[in-house]
Amino acid sequence: MSILEIRQLTKNFGGIAAVVDVDMVVEKGDLVGLIGPNGAGKTTLFNLITGVYAPTSGEIVFTPYNKAILLSGKKPWWITRQGFARTFQNIRLFKELSVLDNVRIAMHKDIKYGVFSSILRLPAYYKEEDRVFTKALELLDIVGLKEKQAELAKNLPYGQQRRLEIARALATDPTVLFLDEPAAGMNPQETADLTRLIGELRQRFGLTIILIEHDMSLVMNLCERIYVLDYGRLIAKGSPDEIKNNQKVIEAYLGEEV
Amino acid sequence: MTQFLQQIVNGLSIGSIYALIALGYTMVYGIIKLINFAHGDIYMVGAFVGFICISTFKMSVLSAILCAMVFCALLGVAVERLAYKPLRNPTKAGLFATALVMGFILIYLVAKATLELDNLWAGVIALVLSLALGFFVYFTITPKGNPNRIAALITAIGVSFFLEYAMMAIMGPNNRSYPATLGGTATLAGVQITFAQILIFIITLALMLILTFIVQKTKIGRAMRAVSTDADAAALMGVNVDRTISITFAIGSSLAGAAGVLVGIYYNTLNPLMGMTYGLKAFIAAVFGGIGIIPGAMLGGFAIGITETMVAGYWSSLFKDAIVYIILIVILILKPSGLLGKNVREKV
Predict the structure, then answer these.
(1) A84: closest chain B residue by CA
(2) Distance between alpha carbon B185 and the CA centroid of its chain, in Å?
(3) What is the pLDDT at residue A75?
(4) Does residue A31 form part of some domain?
(5) A231 touches chain B (CB under 8 A)
(6) Interatomic CA distance for residues A18 and B309, integer angstroms
């Protein structure tokens, strides 16, 4: 059963068509790669799906269980609460906050105490905060940042900031995880570790993952299905082997070996 | 020495009031980078609500403070929803609501004042005309929004005048005096402390502690800090940004409401334009401590209050405002980001 279906999605910025008539079907549990040259519209597509931009036309339908939910035109926070989470190409952590708080913010939607029980410090407040603290630590442990919990996010080295973004995204309790260039700026060792981590997360949380990546070692090792965008249009889709040998894709990358 | 301690006590009490107002400026600036010039007038409204509670409804001081806080919180949220939100992300429904509410209040006041109608007829006329205005706006204007911060700033000044003159139309332009509620003075080592001053200390400290707790330890506080660093990323983590902004306005405005009642008790006098001077001083206090930084507003408020009373006590009360503004200029030259602010260097 398809969990995410994108139909005829188009986005124009003034006269520029950033995404044109994109159709995409993602099955539950898929690990999908989205590749394409710089400026192809990959991040714009992510922004459309997660509600940062409203599409010019087209539909995005999300079916986490049996009921289909129309996502196009909804607000980002609402979409996130339906079970979408993402990381960013240019890291957007809450820099001045601690590593732990970064994760806890993402649990905003399922913290269940009210203003009064927090001001009066009723047991409900402590119970919820304890639960949130434990869950946040668990997530930090998974990405290997448990020791850094008190550190300010901006003081982490680059690779760890990327992993913190993943922990933060997981804290929203997603069914679909969007990773925007998770390996950007990482050295080969870090990329290999990350590849392993993404595979583990998928198993452990039963996630559907869609990722944008330029690092072909990661994409080809990890993704079962790959979509290729060029100038806002979908030019190819298929398994890694099909994509490697696709003439259009090779042309799009200017003859670069894929 | 006694005089010095006396001035410290006086300075701390007026400083508490500045600090309470400054917190609202700083919180709103922190979250949407807007200098909310209407904030001083929300404080003025708080003073009037407290006045009505105490003189008309014979309430105790504490319940009057509570009433003023609740009323100002609602007023702050209304101002945010009707005046600032339509600039951030405009919708036709939002525009309709703004035209309806603002139109109703204005037409009602004008109809009462110029046509000398009674309340019911003025209300009916205002309702009909503002509905017509609302629908006219709804069907003719496509809102585009204005991302320019200057637009929001000028709107804030407009809201400020609106509140001042609406209050003048309702309560009249004259000075009023609070009923004497808290007489009595304690003398400690030659220093006189009035009960009103003690009340001001206690309430201010309690409110500051609650605020610090909310901001540091609760989920709404975390959401506020997240939105102030990166609103888009916060939205993508499931935080309802508009709601967080509204709550920030509610908290900031309720502090101003408490300050309004406290200053009424302390100085015994209030009028519809009182928000201007206090608002400006509190704004300076916020800039002094570093705008956007909550402990900075507290520090700034106390610093400005003590400076004022020291200048008034040892020199002349004519100079106290001048000195405060000179301090502002010096701070802006030497440390533009405020005492507790960090100079951020852009990495290239």
Answers:
(1) B236
(2) 29
(3) 87
(4) yes
(5) no
(6) 62
The answer to whether residue B223 neighbours chain A at the CB level (below 8 Å) is yes
Distance, in Å, from the CA atom of B127 to the CA atom of A111, rounded to the nearest integer, reads 41
> Among all chains, which residue has been given the structure tokens 């709404």?
B220
Residue A257 resides in a domain: no
Q: Check residue A256 and give its pLDDT.
A: 55
Distance from CA of B324 to the nearest CA of A (A): 31
- Mutant choice from A108, A122, A172, A175 vs B, greatest count of B C-beta within 10 A: A108
Q: Beta strand pairing status for A208-212 and A16-27? A: unpaired
Residue A39 falls inside a structural domain:
yes
Alpha-carbon distance of B2 to B4, in angstroms, equals 5
Q: Which of B220, B223, B237 sits opposite A168 (nearest CB)?
A: B237
Q: What is residue A255's predicted lDDT score, i.e. its pLDDT?
A: 57
Chain A to chain B, count of Cβ pairs less than 8 Å apart?
84
CATH code for the domain in which residue A199 is found: 3.40.50.300
Give the DSSP H or E segment for A243: helix A240-244
A248 band by pLDDT with thresholds 50, 70 and 90: confident
Structural domain span for residue A143: 2-252
pLDDT, mean of residues A66-77: 84
Mutate to test the interface with A, among B237, B345, B347 (most CBs of A within 10 A): B237
Percent helix, percent strand, percent coil in chain A, to nearest 5:
40, 25, 35
Whether A177 maps to a domain, the answer reads yes
Q: Does B222 touch chain A (CB under 8 A)?
A: yes
3-state secondary structure of A10: strand
**Crossing angle of helices B2-32 and B39-55, rounded to 10°:** 120
pLDDT for res B174: 87
CB contact under 8 A, A104 and B222: yes
**Do residue A108 and residue B237 have CB atoms under 8 angstroms apart?**
yes
Note the pTM of the prediction, 2 decimals: 0.84
- C-beta atoms of B233 and A92 within 8 A: yes
Q: How would residue B145 be classed by pLDDT, with cut points 50, 70 and 90?
A: low
CB-count exposure of residue B198 (10 Å: 0-12, 13-18, 19+)? middle
- pLDDT tens-digit readout, A82-123: 888 989 888 889 988 899 999 998 888 777 777 677 777 777
Predicted pLDDT of residue B301: 94
Q: What is the CB neighbour count within 10 angstroms for residue A8? A: 12
Asked whether B64 and B53 are in contact (CB, 8 A), the reply is yes
Contact B71, B189 (CB under 8 A): no
Task: Please state whether B193 falls in left (phi above 0), alpha (psi between -120 and 50) or beta.
Answer: beta
Average pLDDT estimate for A166-186 = 90
More confident site: A257 or B55: B55
What is the dihedral angle through the alpha carbons of B254, B258, B263, B266, rounded to the nearest 10 degrees?
180
pLDDT of A247 above 90: no
Q: Decide if A173 touches B, using CB distance below 8 A.
A: no
Do A81 and B210 count as a contact with CB atoms less than 8 A apart? no
